[in-house]
């Protein structure tokens, strides 16, 4: 038990001394004590299966022994240098990380957060192209810093003050909730059950969404643009998938207008999608810049750092003058980053994401088929969204209060799940990649029980 700071006392401190914008999950927020791989333990000794892993921050598992050891060893030696000196760790790490990437993504800039990396990606896109406008998707989350907030297009993160000027939002090609989409549209073992809007069994959703994208390019922005940013699967908005082929065509259109293509791999990178190491590879494209965070540092604030991987030509645009970062690339962060990459390979986590993720998607699809309020199950590997609706025909989002109860019940039964979507209607499943099929069976049973309870209540009402 945590004796020196009783729970109620901490709640009081929270109220008085911690910014209220940092909201907590659950009616009675969890007081965590320890993490081990896919498990979290609270101070009462209760164990939770972490299906959210702190918004995909823990890729290889909480306190993974290899990563912990690497950090401990480095901590006793040297943990802070600025980039003005050399240390082997940053060189080893830059070499290792870029070995996972295709040409021309061979240059790393190490920063401190996802928001900062996306800020810098925008900055470089503008410097390189000498254009200003950046296009992003509706429903995107790319960070909370004033600059990156311009790319974030979710109302609950906006504050009604000027931010990130020069960012234009375009229609999200969401094959479940958008105006077009149907069977075989997306790259997932589970297809949407919404009735296809396309004729004679042939899906034209991609063409329709591309027309909308062209419309933005032709009518809402100047003839030349600085760039386009997108996640390969949209994370915070609830694992939203685009029709197959969309990003490839969109990249071409952007490049025809002089823009660079930025892939935000904060959630989709490091093998999470299972079939590939990077999310962009699932769309058969090569971006000009990719931004990474979270998973690579395995979520330790102190050494969390984001990497910006850049095409050399674009990187050179920033070298015309000084650009400096105090903590980016510190030895502690770099040894952790290297250990995470090693653990992904040694523990075969990309394959595990594929096998266990596919198994989970198929098991969750059975819940979708059984319960009218489970509108969609989608995703790839261990990046999964379960979209809750009032009914499959209307696809209206299930009211938040109703989802809240299901979600709280899952927690009470020992399973932590994320939330997302423009209407907060989607349960987000992004566990550490070491999760097993046995864990999946447990999680699916818990979700099933929570849904049955909800349906029982709904019938009684
Ligand atoms: N991009 C994406 C896709 C994210 O999910 C996040 C964080 N949720 C960020 C950028 C911002 O990262 P950070 O919180 O490290 O600033």
UniProtKB/TrEMBL annotation:
It comes from the Eukaryota. Its cofactor is pyridoxal 5'-phosphate. Keywords: Acetylation, Aminotransferase, Mitochondrion, Pyridoxal phosphate, Transferase, Transit peptide. GO terms for biological process: glyoxylate catabolic process; L-alanine catabolic process, by transamination. It catalyses: 2-oxopentanoate + N(omega),N(omega)-dimethyl-L-arginine = 5-(3,3-dimethylguanidino)-2-oxopentanoate + L-2-aminopentanoate; N(omega),N(omega)-dimethyl-L-arginine + pyruvate = 5-(3,3-dimethylguanidino)-2-oxopentanoate + L-alanine; N(omega),N(omega)-dimethyl-L-arginine + oxaloacetate = 5-(3,3-dimethylguanidino)-2-oxopentanoate + L-aspartate; L-ornithine + glyoxylate = 5-amino-2-oxopentanoate + glycine. Signal peptide: none annotated. InterPro entries: Aminotrans_3, PyrdxlP-dep_Trfase, PyrdxlP-dep_Trfase_major, PyrdxlP-dep_Trfase_small. It is found in: Mitochondrion. Its main location: mitochondrion. GO terms for molecular function: (R)-3-amino-2-methylpropionate-pyruvate transaminase activity; alanine-glyoxylate transaminase activity; beta-alanine:pyruvate transaminase activity; pyridoxal phosphate binding. Coiled coil: none annotated. Its EC number is 2.6.1.18, 2.6.1.40, 2.6.1.44. It is an enzyme of class 2 (transferase). Pfam families: Aminotran_3 (PF00202). GO terms for cellular component: mitochondrion. Gene3D superfamilies: Aspartate Aminotransferase, domain 1, Type I PLP-dependent aspartate aminotransferase-like (Major domain). Belongs to the class-III pyridoxal-phosphate-dependent aminotransferase family. Homotetramer. Multifunctional aminotransferase with a broad substrate specificity. Catalyzes the conversion of glyoxylate to glycine using alanine as the amino donor. Catalyzes metabolism of not L- but the D-isomer of D-beta-aminoisobutyric acid to generate 2-methyl-3-oxopropanoate and alanine. Catalyzes the transfer of the amino group from beta-alanine to pyruvate to yield L-alanine and 3-oxopropanoate. Can metabolize NG-monomethyl-L-arginine (NMMA), asymmetric NG,NG-dimethyl-L-arginine (ADMA) and symmetric NG,N'G-dimethyl-L-arginine (SDMA). This is Alanine--glyoxylate aminotransferase 2, mitochondrial.
